[in-house]
């Protein structure tokens, strides 16, 4: 190009028409073409090492570096899309980043000329030589396509494709887009009015503040907002002018950075400053890969200071109305030093403003005071807290020191003004090592919530709250919960007239022996659950003045009050109560429980599980008026009430009960339990229902539907019931896992309906009552307990079983043998009792023609009357049958001493004479005196009838 053509080209461009320049045109040796550099925003420098110039940068890959019309139509390219070109490069062309120039595309690695920049000097923009380096070269020489106003330069034209000079398909598309882009420029205004640019400012920055000891780190983030534009292509043909569809797109230039300032003015303003080229020059922060920037502020520099920040995009757009301001004092008012001491500096404490959100290891979002996430429950090491002069409080102080488990002292608490505090819930919760806590100055006149305020202050032995104004408090739940070292607590002045919840208020105050709540106004209380739960040394409590008309929950209310000997709740109105589980659990010394059956309503109760369990010495319990129609859980309700001799549950409505597991287990004093009308159609768990009811004599389970329950939930129903001699089962009374046992031979039957004559178990087996049979004259077959339980699975009728038994016909006697008091003993001395006769009579028709036998066994050894530890040993006890002359050794096991068979007429009547003889040696008699032993004779039917 010569001077004439250069002047003509410039004149052409001044008309607003587009000028497109290709590879190696605007280049240092080209005198006139190089003069187009400023029109493109380029400074043209020598380009080869041999000239001492600036080496260019080359590659076969390019990528768009900004969004706009040029990369939208007709082909759409994204910023992360790598495009293939034939090798191209820049040379001696220095991009100035100013004057409205736009670098649309850059080369992508791997770069060419990588070795040529190492040993040369680099000419900077002022033509000064500086050491060459890849950093400058990549930043300043890396461009493939630039535009400025109506000028464009693309580094294509260096390519060879398919053996001929050509561009790649990607280059062809890029060139097409560039032509469309430049064709839209307005002729008369040099295209500037119609060049599509991002004119929208970024959004208002957001700030995230984290604190670490004496420093706050503010992370600033904003997103660039784009400008919408619409375009179409106009084409003139020989016949008509045609237009394409209108296309909408959004241009975003990307975030350039942030401008901020810190001052003491909450209404301060930060203003980005533009230089002569329109570039914002006072950026403080450049965004990282996420668009964020960070500012660190020391506590000393941030107290009573404000940070103002505004975002700027790459097109230098910003909006003063989108400035963000934060009060640094809100984040720098506390510190945890290297000695793990928490200091709170002058500040108005307010949970609603001061709390922070953080995500725990389980992924749940938690809310706490700002020092908590750094020093959480799992790793807290804070050992002391200091409240500086000037600290005030307003609103909520919930969880202020919770749970600083290693904190041993709080300094300056007496200076904290609490007159405007409304919430002290959990304020000291979990301060396990605090041995003293002075809250005597607290003004609580505005407080409405004190729940769990002192919970788990395990080391406090005293706490002076007697001055507290509680007239506005509505919640005292768990207020002193788990204060296990408190030995005294005065709440006698508490105004509870507004309180609705006192659940667990004194729970687990294990060392308190007295709590005066006699004045408590509970007229608004709805929840008393666990009120005295775990007060194991509390001797008594006066609740006679309690108004319980609105209470719905009394679960665990007196549980574990192990020192109570009596409790008066005669005034309790429980008509609204729905939960009574564990209410009197383990009141192990309580002998007397006074309540009014007409006031102690249970018509709304759904849970009575373990209600009276472990009330070992409770002598009487009137539950005859209990309405259990809504109760679903009666598990272990009366378990281990071993002193109860009677309990009337005959009227219990169990139609909604699902669990009666162990309900009467361990009730060792009960001889009868009337449950024969119970509806158990919904019960899922019968386990251990009557286990260890050792005096229970009879059970009628004929109405029970146990069949529907899985086997593992109907086990041990009658385990350890050695006195149970009568059992009635119905068609669904399946008890195959009940552990029903056979009687021990000779066990006396306790028949409450027929105390005389006395009956005994004849054999270790049971007998069906049978047709026409009675409890003491059964007519059915005999069978083992295991057969009864097995048959219950298939049986579908009602049957009654009793022990195989006999009455007075079984002979029991004590044989008294007098060796003579202080008389010499003789070797092999034989002592015989006088001849006696016993008669065996049996008139049961089932015995006709059946064999029988009489067994004898020593059931009590020959012991000295005055000292039971001394007994005759060494020689056997012989039984002599005078009819046969046979003798039997009864010392070790029972022996058959007579056999016979029932005769005709369905009866047997035989008289048998007998005597006893004992042979002794002096060495076998430990002392002289009167010895008494016992031999038991038992009638046994060999046939099993």
TrEMBL record:
GO biological process: SCF-dependent proteasomal ubiquitin-dependent protein catabolic process
One Gene Ontology term, aspect cellular component: SCF ubiquitin ligase complex
Pfam families: DUF285
Domain of life: Bacteria
Transmembrane segments: none
PANTHER family reported for this sequence: PARTNER OF PAIRED, ISOFORM B-RELATED
Name of the molecule in the record: Surface protein
């Amino acid at each position: 190009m010569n001077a004439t053509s250069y002047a003509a080209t410039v004149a052409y461009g001044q008309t607003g028409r587009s000028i497109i320049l290709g590879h190696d045109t605007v280049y240092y040796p080209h005198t006139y073409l190089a003069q187009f550099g400023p029109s493109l925003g380029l400074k043209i420098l020598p380009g080869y090492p041999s000239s001492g110039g600036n080496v260019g940068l080359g590659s076969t890959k390019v990528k768009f570096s900004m969004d706009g019309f040029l990369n939208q139509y007709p082909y759409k390219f994204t910023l992360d899309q790598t495009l293939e070109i034939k090798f191209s490069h820049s040379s001696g062309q220095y991009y100035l980043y100013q004057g409205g120039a736009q670098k649309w595309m850059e080369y992508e690695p791997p770069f060419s000329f990588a070795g040529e920049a190492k040993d040369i000097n680099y000419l900077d923009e002022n033509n000064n030589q500086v050491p060459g380096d890849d950093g400058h070269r990549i930043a300043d020489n890396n461009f493939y396509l630039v535009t400025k106003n109506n000028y464009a330069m693309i580094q294509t034209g260096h390519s060879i494709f398919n053996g001929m000079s050509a561009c790649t398909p990607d280059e062809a598309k890029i060139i097409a887009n560039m032509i469309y882009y430049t064709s839209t420029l307005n002729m008369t205004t040099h295209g500037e009015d119609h060049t599509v640019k991002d004119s929208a400012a970024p959004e208002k920055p957001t700030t995230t503040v984290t604190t670490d000891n004496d420093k706050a780190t503010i992370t600033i983030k904003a997103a660039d907002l784009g400008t919408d534009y619409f375009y179409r292509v106009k084409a003139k043909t020989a016949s008509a002018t045609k237009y394409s569809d209108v296309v909408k797109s959004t241009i975003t230039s990307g975030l350039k950075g942030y401008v901020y300032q810190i001052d003491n003015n909450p209404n301060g303003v930060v203003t980005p400053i533009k230089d002569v080229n329109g570039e914002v020059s006072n950026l403080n922060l450049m965004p990282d890969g996420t668009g964020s920037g960070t500012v660190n502020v020391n506590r000393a520099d941030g107290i009573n200071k404000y940070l103002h920040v505004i975002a700027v995009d790459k097109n230098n757009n910003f909006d003063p109305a989108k400035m963000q301001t934060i009060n640094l004092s809100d984040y720098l008012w506390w510190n945890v030093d290297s000695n793990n001491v928490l200091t709170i500096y002058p500040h108005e404490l307010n949970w609603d403003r001061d709390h922070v959100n953080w995500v725990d290891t389980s992924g749940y979002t938690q809310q706490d005071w700002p020092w908590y996430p750094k020093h959480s429950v799992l790793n807290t090491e804070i050992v002391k807290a200091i409240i500086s002069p000037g600290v005030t409080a307003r609103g909520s102080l919930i969880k202020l020191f919770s749970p600083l488990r290693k904190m041993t002292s709080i300094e300056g608490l007496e200076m904290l003004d609490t007159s405007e505090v409304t919430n002290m819930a959990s304020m000291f919760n979990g301060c396990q090592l605090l041995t003293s806590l002075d809250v005597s100055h607290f003004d609580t006149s505005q407080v409405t919530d004190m729940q769990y305020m002192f919970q788990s202050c395990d080391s406090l032995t005293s706490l002076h709250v007697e001055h507290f104004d509680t007239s506005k408090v509505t919640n005292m739940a768990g207020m002193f919960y788990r204060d296990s070292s408190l030995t005294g607590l005065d709440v006698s002045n508490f105004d509870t007239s507004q309180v609705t919840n006192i659940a667990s208020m004194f729970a687990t105050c294990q060392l308190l022996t007295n709590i005066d709540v006699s004045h408590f106004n509970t007229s608004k209380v709805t929840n008393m659950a666990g009120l005295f739960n775990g007060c194991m040394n509390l001797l008594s409590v006066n609740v006679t003045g309690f108004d319980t008309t609105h209470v719905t929950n009394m679960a665990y209310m007196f549980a574990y009050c192990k020192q109570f000997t009596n409790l008066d709740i005669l005034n309790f109105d429980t008509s609204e109560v729905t939960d009574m589980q564990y209410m009197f659990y383990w009141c192990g010394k309580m002998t007397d429980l006074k309540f009014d059956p007409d006031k102690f309503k249970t018509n709304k109760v759904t849970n009575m599980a373990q209600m009276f369990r472990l009330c070992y010495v409770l002598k009487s319990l009137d539950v005859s008026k209990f309405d259990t129609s809504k109760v679903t859980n009666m598990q272990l309700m009366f378990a281990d009430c071993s002193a109860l001799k009677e309990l009337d549950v005959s009227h219990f409505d169990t139609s909604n009960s699902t669990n009666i597991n162990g309900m009467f287990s361990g009730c060792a004093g009960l001889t009868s339990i009337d449950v024969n009308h119970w509806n158990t159609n919904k019960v899922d768990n019968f386990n251990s229902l009557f286990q260890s009811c050792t005096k229970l004599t009879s059970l009628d389970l004929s109405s029970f539907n146990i069949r529907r329950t899985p086997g593992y939930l109907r086990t041990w129903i009658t385990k350890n019931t050695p006195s149970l001699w009568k059992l009635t089962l119905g068609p669904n009374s399946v008890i195959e896992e009940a552990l029903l046992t056979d009687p021990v031979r000779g066990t006396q039957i306790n028949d409450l309906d027929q105390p005389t004559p006395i009956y005994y178990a004849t054999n270790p087996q049971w007998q069906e009552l049978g047709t026409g049979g009675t409890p003491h004259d059964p007519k059915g077959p005999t069978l083992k307990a295991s057969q009864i339980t097995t048959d219950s699975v298939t049986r579908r009728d009602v049957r009654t079983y009793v022990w195989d038994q006999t009455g007075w016909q079984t002979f029991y006697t004590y044989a008294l043998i007098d060796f003579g008091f202080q008389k010499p003993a003789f070797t092999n001395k034989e002592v015989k009792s006088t001849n006696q006769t016993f008669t065996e009579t049996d008139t049961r028709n089932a015995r006709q023609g059946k064999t029988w036998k009489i067994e004898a066994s020593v059931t009590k050894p020959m012991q000295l009357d005055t000292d039971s530890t001394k007994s005759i040993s060494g020689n056997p006890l012989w039984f002599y049958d005078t009819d046969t002359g046979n003798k039997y050794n009864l010392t070790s096991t029972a022996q058959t001493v007579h056999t016979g068979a029932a005769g005709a007429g369905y009866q047997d009547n035989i008289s048998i004479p007998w005597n006893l003889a004992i042979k002794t040696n002096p060495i076998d008699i430990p002392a002289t005196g009167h010895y008494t032993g016992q031999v038991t004779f038992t009638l046994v039917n060999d046939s099993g009838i």
